[in-house]
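Catalogue entry: protein
Contents: sequence, fold tokens
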Amino acid sequence: MSERITIVGGGLAGAEAAWQLARQGVPVDLYEMRPVRGTAAHHTDQLGELVCSNSFRNATLETAVGLLKEEMRRLGSLVMQVADANQVPAGACLAVDRDHFAAELTRAVETLPAVRIVREEVTEVPPGLTILATGPLTSPALSDALQRALGRTHLYFYDAIAPIITAESIDMTVAWKASRYGKGGEDYINCPLDRDQYAAFVEAVVAAEKVPTRDFERCLYFEGCMPIEEMARRGPATLAFGPMRPVGLVDPRTGQRAHACVQLRQDDAEARLFNMVGFQTKMTYPEQRRVFRMIPGLEHAEFVRLGSLHRNTFVNAPALLLPSLQVIGQKRLLLAGQIVGVEGYVESAATGMLAGLNVARLLQGEAPLTPPRTTSLGSLLGYITHRGKKAFQPMNANYGLFPPLSGSLRGREKKLALAARALADLGHWQTSVGLAPEPAGRQSVA
């Protein structure tokens, strides 16, 4: 029998790693501390619970995260199979019914004969071949143990969660349905604000009572999840050029573009719930209800979940990790998920996928894998593991990380050329390392 592998953390990365190992017959103990010990952001004990948003972001090859999804599909990703099977309308993005997604992902892992799910907190770094995928909400005890094992001080930043509203409480005589620039159909609900309404809203956001920051915690925000009050504090026009940007949104009843606009994205398959796009916040709950009901169309909003703030933990990956996700000097310990310094659901799951594939390779006495730098996954790994970085901060997949193309392509044409090169190189690489390519496009779990 193969050595039993320990995976700590039942989020997207841990579930994906377990899937990759189990489908090769490798026995896995998957530790998840919920519900024995909860976190500041989770509400269930499901594997792969999505706590910040229901969106896996852009689904087209014009973006590096869209390309990363396709790379994962071709590498046999469980997370992408389940996401594709549980999507809800979201224009050019891949968004899912978060409850259905987590339930199906949990069932898929629970039914794997090689996987044993252990519901208890891990407080020390396990011996043996281990994948730590505890994510941004690593428990304090394990965080301390990891710090001792790595000999490094953890970095951390704050991440903020956007509210969710019932569809029936939205005033559709004020709001209207449309996607930006008409892409993807009428997938978003749009709440318009004129100049005076916007100014009053920004003033209220800045003045609202916030959840206090504890003295011993440094407040470092990742730009992609910046709370709206932090944006508003930077200047009165910041929100209008950020999550409230009205460009591409014309009210069909007036034929005019509002001064600012709040977009709501469908959050469940039945379209009963909508989340406030880009409206992460650390305002107190009473203040959220008061301030957000100033938005036209949301005067009587019923909130099923309010925004919250939690600490996200990540390590100084350039000083600690190899591109295989092995810890330098401790190659039987691999890290995966947001704790390695990637940001986003897709990026986290992708590192879990690679960690699972690499542990299987190590068990077979083979060299671990590193995808080509020209791929989305390879470029992201190159960023987080490039030695000598100062002031390392988490990063999303983006085309700015890719090796340049020859020639002078620009804009959309350049992005599609980068994607075409990536997928071609991925195919050649899969063949060279003996990874059977999965069919391109969406696949089912079955």
Q: What stands out?
A: The chain is about 30% helix and 15% strand. The mean pLDDT is 89.
